[in-house]
Each structure stands twice: as structure tokens, then as C-alpha cells.
Amino acid sequence: MKLLYSGKTKDVYELEDGNYLLKFKDDVTGENGVFDPGANTVGLTIEGAGAAGLRLTKFFFEKLKEKNIPTHYMDANLEEATMTVVPATVFGEGLEVICRYRAVGSFLKRYGKYVKEGQALDAFVEVTLKDDERQDPPISEDALDMVGILTKEEYHTLKELTQQIAQVVKDELAKKDVELYDIKLEFGRDANNNILLIDEISGGNMRAYKDGKYIEPLELEKIIVS
Amino acid sequence: MKLLYSGKTKDVYELEDGNYLLKFKDDVTGENGVFDPGANTVGLTIEGAGAAGLRLTKFFFEKLKEKNIPTHYMDANLEEATMTVVPATVFGEGLEVICRYRAVGSFLKRYGKYVKEGQALDAFVEVTLKDDERQDPPISEDALDMVGILTKEEYHTLKELTQQIAQVVKDELAKKDVELYDIKLEFGRDANNNILLIDEISGGNMRAYKDGKYIEPLELEKIIVS
């Protein structure tokens, strides 16, 4: 088993059969010891965070499978905090695709002149580059095409899949009276150039609120999966 | 004559007949005494800069008129450094629409992971909000629609007009062996809700190069108009 990549919250190994194994770590992103799903740095380590993230990821990826939405998910081992996935390559050096139902976070920072904090947004989709050095800049459909990361057709597929997946997550959260404010997803291409959801869907990828109060990732996992 | 607005490089007055009068000032944008068309602050004052900006603006707006591209231009008084224009309202609290032929400036700052400095771009259009406090953030077609600044249809009109206008400027510069790298434009709506080019087209709105060397606004005016 060969380590391909060591990420902030996950390690990626190549298995002998060619599939990949993701090992979920107990590190979560944030700054100064405070969890922040939008942060680029590992802020703290929480025992059991990796297993909890995987449990939620397994839950959502299996829901998506039922709905025939393409993902890289094959199976999960909760004891080992590992997930087996189909190999996929990211777009460019990695994109994040965000779907927003409420104006918070970087959207509010950028467009605060025109929106109020928490204002409803209609499944607004935007793409940011994974580029720590340049603070993950937002990038438009035209620019993605111009720099050769995504064709216009791929962009539209990505946007549509993002809205479908976000809706599935939103509906599941709503069953427990939790409201999804925003979620960030990652996509890749499989060996046949099909676009599929990769990475994970856990508390660390989204902002969820209950009765107007932000729900921490570990608490979210307990509410949704238990 | 009533002062409506005092801008960084221009004052706007309302005339008795309802049209507007723009008074071009000798202040140019920049930082630490160095001219920078992308800057938000007035960096220096150059005697004759206002009149030179107006001369170039008059030249380009009259070219656009010949091509039936809608602008707010009526006439200009070079001695007074004033221009009479049709009243128009800006989109939201003001947008800048940029057309890029080379990757420099804020495009390079944001997407430097994917493009080389000076790399050719195919009349790439992007919109930024005029918002000094938030460093003029870029905003996508979807976001402009979502926050109620521009409909999708208006966005497409704006993009098409921007590419047409930039091409006219590029062609005029090319006649003097000057290359247009990028240009920023402003648009508004007239009383009948038609979209038209407003503000000015001068050296302060664009980056122009000759033999690989950046041409200062005042020099550009001399090269193009004389």
C-alpha cells in the first residue's frame, strides 16, 4: 500500500488492485484552535473526528448512490477510519465547488455591500481554486475555460451535480431540524473521464445550524447518523 | 449647475437641461506616487492629465459612435476639460467590467498558479464590484443575478458590448504599434433602460504596451491622438 498524498485531514494510499484508500485523520481545519470549515490550516486535533467524519461521509455517499449520483465511493471501514474509492484525478490542481443557501463566510465578506448576513440564497454555486498561497480565489466559468481547467460543458455538469448533491444533504439535515447554510464539494474525473464527487461529505465541509445556532462537526454527526 | 458627485478623477454636475457635465481632474489613481490604473486611491496629480484623458476619451467615444455602439457621450470642451453626457444610473453601486488580452494585474494575482505573466487571453471578460472597503471583489454572472445587480440577459449584453468596445480600442492602438493588455469599462442604464458605456476611455482605464514597455497614460494620449 503506497502513500500517494498526505492532506490536511486525510491521507490517500494506492491499493494493490489500483483503487485508492482514504485514511481519515483526527485533524480538522481551523484557526487558533477554533474549527472553521473555510480555513486552510489545521487548527486542532479531536480524538474520533476522523471516524465521525467517515461515518457521516458513508451515510451521505450511500444516499447519493441510491439516487444514482456518481461518486468515487466503494465502501468504508469505520473501525479503521478508512474508505475505499475509485481512482480519480482532480481538475487542475484542485477546485472547491460551493453551494450556498445563506449568505455567510467568504460570500458575505466579498458581497457584504449587497447582502445581509444570513440572507437566503437560491442554491448559489461558485468555484474556488485550491491555492493556499493565493487564499483560494473564486474563479468564474469563463476563467475556468480560459485557463484550461474546465470546459463550459464540464462546468455545467459540475454546477448541476453540486445543486443535486447539496439538495440531498439539505433534505437529510432538515429531517433532524438542521438547516444547511452552505457546503463545499470536490469533484474529479474517473478513468473514463466521467465527472464524479470525490473526497468526503462531513461536518467539516458544511455550515449547519439548528435553532439559529451553529452545529459543530462532531455534534452534527451525532444528530444525523445516530 | 449642481455638483452631483465628486469622484477620484472626475466631478459630475447636473446641467439645467437635465444632462450631466463631467469635469476631468488632474488627479490620477495610483499608490505612492506611481500610476496604477487598478488602484483605488489617488496617487498623484499631473498638470494636464484631465485634459489629456478627455482628449483620448473624446477620440474613442467618437469612434464608438461611428460604429453605433451606445455610449453616454454628447460632446466635449477640451479647453474646460469637460464632457456633456446623457444621464445614466450605474448598476448596483457601480461595477467595473474588464476585458483582458494578457494575464497581468489582479488576474495574474488570482490565477498565477495556472497562467504565466503576460500570457495571451482571448478577450476575457470579468466584472468587479466598486467597493474600496472590500478591495473591488470579482463577481460572477450568477452572483450578479442572485444579489439583484444584473439579470442574466443584461450580463450577456454587457459582456458583448465590452468585447466590441475593447476591440475598437485595441485596433486603434494597434495602428500606432501599441498593444492593449487590458481595459476596464463602466456601464449604466439611460432613462429608457438601455445599457450604455459611461465614464471615460483614457490611459487611466487601460494597460498599453509598446515594444514590451508599459506606456504611461499621458504618453499614450500623445501617441494615439496626435
From TrEMBL, chains A, B:
Pathway: Purine metabolism; IMP biosynthesis via de novo pathway; 5-amino-1-(5-phospho-D-ribosyl)imidazole-4-carboxamide from 5-amino-1-(5-phospho-D-ribosyl)imidazole-4-carboxylate: step 1/2. It comes from the Bacteria. Gene3D superfamilies: ATP-grasp fold, B domain (3.30.470.20), Phosphorylase Kinase, domain 1 (3.30.200.20). SUPFAM superfamilies: SAICAR synthase-like. It catalyses: 5-amino-1-(5-phospho-D-ribosyl)imidazole-4-carboxylate + L-aspartate + ATP = (2S)-2-[5-amino-1-(5-phospho-beta-D-ribosyl)imidazole-4-carboxamido]succinate + ADP + phosphate + 2 H(+). Keywords: ATP-binding, Ligase, Nucleotide-binding, Purine biosynthesis. Its EC number is 6.3.2.6. One of its GO terms (biological process) is 'de novo' IMP biosynthetic process. One of its GO terms (molecular function) is phosphoribosylaminoimidazolesuccinocarboxamide synthase activity. Residues 3-214 form the SAICAR synthetase/ADE2 N-terminal domain. PANTHER family: MULTIFUNCTIONAL PROTEIN ADE2, SI:DKEY-6E2.2. Belongs to the SAICAR synthetase family. This is Phosphoribosylaminoimidazole-succinocarboxamide synthase. The gene is purC.
